[in-house]
């Protein structure tokens, strides 16, 4: 893939970039996406049975175990070249804001600091009644499925993720929207751009005059609206982009 010169100019010239990632950036680490045909989680499971407060109320054991299964998958994977390229990008652009819809913690594992997690974190636990964080040692030591909450007599522990029908953490969403409105370049990586409000961040940035770039092997609702769409896997395209930024030109030319 050749990186167009105007994109390189925009990348070199930007000082306040925002990168927003989705499940696609973790696909090359071996974590399934949600909507890819056949392999996506929502192609194999019904979100309404597993990722809503109603599902948890109806069958807390099933929902807890499903998230435990996903947590166990995470213990076997590590960040990939795409996550690492974003750490490198942050070294070149110290004002970079990294926003993710992912709950897997792989950006932090790669070394990215101050990641805005729009949909929470699967490696953390909260009380379903109060929303208060629950210590992981307490979760590990409890023999119950799911563990009873230490914060409320009628509460259960649940994963600290945002479920369908729930509000996003207000602080994270406000920070992400502020960054999107103020950025000079918005890079959308590995997201199908269909889940709101995350999908609107790129449009907000574009409306405010930022250069909008998409990295995704497939077409999404953002593709036609973006200034540049780089069709390919994040694990190869992102390192190329960062190399080109470092060398001042696309090293493949
Ligand atoms: P999706 O599964 O909807 O989309 C994943 C995107 O990644 C698709 O557009 C793929 O084409 C793309 N993709 C696949 N492999 C890739 C690769 N190697 N490099 C780059 N892109 C690749 O996942 P999200 O957009 O993250 O929310 O989904 C958004 C939200 O919907 C998730 O956070 C989750 C889900 O339901 C909640 O659970 C609240």
Describe the structure in your own words.
The protein has 253 residues and is an alpha/beta fold. It contains twelve helices and nine strands. The chain has helices spanning 5-13, 24-27, 41-44, 47-50, 53-58, 60-74, 81-92, 106-110, 136-141, 170-182, 198-207, 234-247, and strands spanning 17-21, 97-100, 115-117, 120-127, 133-134, 157-161, 185-189, 211-215, 228-230. The chain has a six-stranded parallel beta sheet with strand order 3-2-1-7-8-9, sandwiched between helices. A three-stranded antiparallel beta sheet has the order 5-4-6. β4 (120-127) and β5 form a beta hairpin. α10 (170-182) packs parallel to α11 (198-207). The longest helix has 15 residues, at 60-74. Bound molecules: 2'-O-acetyl adenosine-5-diphosphoribose (OAD). Residues 22-24, 27-28, 33-36, 40, 51, 101, 119, 162, 190-192, 195, 215-218, 220, 233-235 line the site of 2'-O-acetyl adenosine-5-diphosphoribose.
């Amino acid at each position: 893939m050749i990186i167009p010169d105007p994109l390189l100019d925009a990348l070199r010239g930007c000082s306040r970039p925002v990168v927003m990632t989705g499940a696609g950036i973790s696909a090359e680490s071996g974590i399934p996406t949600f909507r890819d045909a056949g392999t996506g989680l929502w192609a194999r499971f019904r979100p309404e049975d597993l990722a809503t407060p109603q599902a948890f109320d109806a069958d807390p054991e099933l929902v807890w175990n499903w998230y435990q299964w996903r947590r166990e998958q995470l213990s076997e994977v590590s960040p990939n070249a795409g996550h690492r390229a974003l750490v490198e990008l942050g070294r070149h652009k110290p004002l970079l804001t990294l926003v993710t819809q992912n709950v897997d913690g792989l950006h932090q594992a790669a070394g990215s600091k101050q990641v805005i997690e729009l949909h929470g974190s699967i490696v953390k636990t909260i009380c379903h009644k109060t929303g208060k964080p629950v210590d992981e040692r307490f979760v590990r030591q409890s023999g119950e499925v799911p563990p009873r909450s230490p914060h409320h007599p009628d509460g259960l522990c649940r994963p600290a993720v945002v479920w369908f029908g729930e509000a996003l953490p207000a602080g994270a969403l406000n920070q992400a929207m502020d960054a999107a409105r103020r950025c000079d370049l918005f890079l959308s990586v590995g997201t199908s751009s269909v889940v709101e409000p995350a999908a609107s961040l790129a449009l907000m940035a574009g409306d405010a005059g930022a250069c909008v770039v998409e990295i995704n092997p497939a077409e999404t609702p953002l593709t036609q609206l973006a200034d540049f769409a780089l069709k390919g896997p994040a694990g190869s395209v992102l390192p190329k982009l960062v190399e080109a930024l470092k060398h001042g030109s696309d090293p493949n030319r």
